[in-house]
Write a structure and sequence with these properties.
This protein is α/β, with parallel strands linked by helices and 417 residues long. It has 2 domains: 4-32 and 283-409, Lyase, Ornithine Decarboxylase, Chain A, domain 1 (Beta Barrel), CATH 2.40.37; 103-275, TIM Barrel (Alpha-Beta Barrel), CATH 3.20.20.10. Helices cover 28% and strands 25% of the residues. The chain is built from 11 helices and 21 strands. It has helices spanning 18-25, 34-48, 65-74, 83-91, 108-117, 127-140, 178-186, 208-226, 252-265, 279-282, 315-319; strands spanning 4-7, 10-13, 16-17, 29-33, 53-58, 77-80, 99-101, 121-124, 144-151, 173-174, 191-197, 233-235, 272-275, 286-297, 302-306, 325-327, 336-341, 350-357, 364-367, 388-393, 396-401. Helix 2 (34-48) runs parallel beside helix 3 (65-74), helix 4 (83-91) packs parallel to helix 5 and helix 8 (208-226) runs parallel beside helix 9. The mean pLDDT is 96. Bound molecules: ligand LLP. InterPro entries: Ala_racemase/Decarboxylase_C, DAP_deCOOHase_LysA, De-COase2_C, De-COase2_CS, De-COase2_N, Orn/DAP/Arg_de-COase, PLP-binding_barrel.
Length: 417
Amino acid sequence: APHFQFKNGTLHAENLSLTQLAETYDTPLYVYSRQALRDAWEAYRVATEGRNVLVCYGMKANSNLAVLNEFKNLGTGFDIVSGGELARVLAIGADPAKVVFSGVGKQVWEMQAALEAGVKCFNVESEAELTRLAQVAQDMGKIALVSLRVNPDVDAQTHPYISTGLKENKFGIAIEKAVEVYQHAASLPSLNIVGVDCHIGSQITEVSPYLDALDKLIALIQTLASHGIHLKHLDLGGGIGIRYTDEQPLTPSDLLNKVFEMLAQHQLDHLQIVLEPGRSLVGNAGVLLTQVEYLKHSEAKNFAIVDAAMNDLIRPTLYDAWHSVEAVKPRTQGDTLYDIVGPICESGDWLARDRKLTLQQGDLLAIMSAGAYAFTMASQYNTRPRAAEVMVDGDTAHLVRPREPLESLYASESILG
Ligand code: LLP
């Protein structure tokens, strides 16, 4: 990651040393690089230039307002999955006409809030949701703009927990049923069909699963047209992977070059393409900074017990995910294999395993590639306040979310009299 580099033997975020940041803000600490966000966007900007594409940042990956605002200013829309995420995008003054609303379980109040705001599209994932949305819109005297999220039954070749486009997944409407559901949608006066949507998975490294999905969506779009249902946009979801270790993921250009080629072949290049990338915009723009509290050597293992834990970063234990670990000030003498573990009372509380490091108590470690699905998946388990978040911009650090005050974790609870 070019914005997290060693300078004079110390790992930096842009121009600031992580040692300095730990002193100022304490650990565990999320550190983001503003330039890394801009660079990640640049790959999308280049790929979308001169093409009718709307990039809706999949904000579940990292929904800090500073991150959202950066992307808003760069021109993205947003992919939201809850009324809470809608509230965040409205809080930064984003344009609701660039917001798509995904998710299998939209509640009435969430539909109402999104209709009130005027979102670009609801990505509807079931017939029951379609019925509810039509009713909610009708009661409000509004027209809901709708895409169906179809399940194209393709294998994204990624971790089963983050693969979403297979028949057995809970997501979307089976593609064989889609025409029927579209026809039903077309008959409902409070709905206006605008598109089709799919999202096949996350941390995808190849173009081919996207093209398999696109193939099926193109066939669907053609069938719909023969029934007089004409779409304005085609949403291919998110999913472009990042490099955690030695992956060579596809780039936005790899994807869009192929997509536009296929659309042209089928005379469908009038369609707007929507993308919902999350991880690829933020994943490598953040690290989790943590301090070694204790070293513990047993017969079987060497443990570095650090002050970050599974409540801060759950990906390793939840997905067996691999995050690279860097000593902020690497020592030279001799290497030991360490498991990096947190203080939580669970064997699953580990951040990395069998890493060659030379450590002493008090050393700082950076858990890399922690910009996506890291803070947003954090909890307060063991009554641990969620970590602070800092955004570095050149020579300046901005505290974009302070560490949660301990009392705030239980301040709204009450005891029985
Ligand atoms: N659109 C939809 C409908 C989604 O469900 C997702 C992610 C995205 C877009 C963004 O996907 P991305 O570009 O970030 O791959 N917590 C897991 C990842 C879960 C992804 C959920 N959906 C992880 O830490 O790996």
